Amino acid sequence: MEEPPDGESGRGARVAVLIGAAIVLVSLCCCAAAVAGVVTWGDDAYRWFTNERGDTVAVGQAGRDGAFEFTVSRIDCGVSQIGDSFVNQSAVGQFCLAEMTIHNVGKRPATFADALQRGYGPDGDRYAPDSAAGILANSEQQLFQNQINPGNRVTGVVVYDIPPDSHIAELELHESEDTAGLRVKA
């Protein structure tokens, strides 16, 4: 057998090491991108891919998500200001108020969090609640971050500040961030 001239065997080994390092680097980048995608869109992407959805009801009908039975009695948009003459907040666009009753039909206390309640426009735009406006809209009620004991029910308003040319077409209501959610068609 003939041995390669000096330097060629070392060069081949270096090329193999560089190719291996490039493969490892690309694999790490793909893993990092997958983790970033899961962190950013995980819950929504999972539901989209698996078509996992909770029940769907109309305004005025009761529906359940986790330990909570939700009944949205009405959704009013076009409100420009919430509060009273002393303490108030103006909408950036317009306020939409979703009045609802939450009944704990489970066997343990559960906490209602307005931040988990999503609103959707007619084009699928997703809106987050405006918690500060929600506190003003619920000045006499204990809706936010309130533990609801089994069998008890509370009524209150979840407030969304949305563009002035839109409206809430659908709500997705959650008992917790781990539940599928109840869809309420407006």
Mind explaining what this structure looks like?
With 186 residues, the protein is an alpha+beta fold. Helices cover 27% and strands 37% of the residues. It contains 2 helices and 11 strands; from the N terminus they run αβββββββαββββ. The strands form 3 sheets. A 5-stranded mixed β-sheet has the order 1-11-10-6-7, with no helix packed on it. A 4-stranded antiparallel β-sheet has the order 2-3-4-9, with helices on one face. A hairpin with a 2-residue loop joins strand 2 and strand 3 (68-83). It is elongated and about 85 Å long. The protein starts with 7 loop residues before the first helix and ends with a strand.
List keywords for this structure.
186 residues; four-stranded antiparallel beta sheet; five-stranded mixed beta sheet; elongated; 2 domains; Immunoglobulin-like; 27% helix
SSE class? alpha+beta
Q: Which topology of the largest domain does CATH recognise?
A: Immunoglobulin-like
β-strand percent reads: 35-45%
Instruction: Please count the beta strands (DSSP E, at least 2 residues each).
Output: 11
Report helical residue fraction: 25-40%
CATH architecture designation of the largest domain: Sandwich
- Outline, from the CA principal axes? elongated
Taking all residues together, what is the mean pLDDT? 85
Largest sheet: 5 strands, mixed
Radius of gyration based on Cα positions? 26 Å
Q: Into how many domains do the coordinates divide?
A: 2
Note the total helix count: 2
Stretches where pLDDT is under 50 for at least 5 consecutive residues are none
Query: What is the straight-line distance between the termini?
Result: 82 Å
Order of helices and strands: HEEEEEEEHEEEE
Given this structure, which CATH class of the largest domain is correct?
A: Mainly Beta
Q: If strands are numbered along the chain, what order do they take across the biggest sheet? A: 1-11-10-6-7
